[in-house]
Amino acid sequence: EDQVTQSPEALRLQEGESSSLNCSYTVSGLRGLFWYRQDPGKGPEFLFTLYSAGEEKEKERLKATLTKKESFLHITAPKPEDSATYLCAPGGSQGNLIFGKGTKLSVKP
Amino acid sequence: DSGVTQTPKHLITATGQRVTLRCSPRSGDLSVYWYQQSLDQGLQFLIQYYNGEERAKGNILERFSAQQFPDLHSELNLSSLELGDSALYFCASSLSGAYGYTFGSGTRLTVV
Which residue of B has its CA nearest to A100? Predict the structure, then answer.
């Protein structure tokens, strides 16, 4: 059975305090690993897609990395506007995304 | 604006009723995916359509059904509604799954 686990469930950081979010997965027929950001009451917003172990992608203060069983989202010097829920979603063999429950990030000024 | 349009934004209805949620995909996208997000739950995949044909099914209840029309918009029909069906329902579209999925802003369904 396909499984996705994100940790921690919640993370509180001070502005400028860097950290990492983890996504562990077991998915058969993996078709990419997607990261999304979701604000309360809104639809998920696409951040990155990673396809192979060792691949890295960056966008502003965010960097995503991928291994065979895990992906990390590194947040460098976060700002309050980075507060959101970050969702990891491996692509399954049927072509759909399998979402984790997310990490709720709160960045205090 | 993501380019994926969902209507209505909010819906309040009584148990036992039937509702229809509508999704217009981003221009050029052929695939439409429906997801349910309950309170404190992750996004659960319901069903996928590609160019009018059902492509994949997830944890979709028998009381729920969907279709994709020739103009590529999609409708999700929910019937015999129960309190537990209260959730955010999201539609996403893509040209090809490998190139990312764009989500709409969702329909918040409240069953009372």
Answer: B42
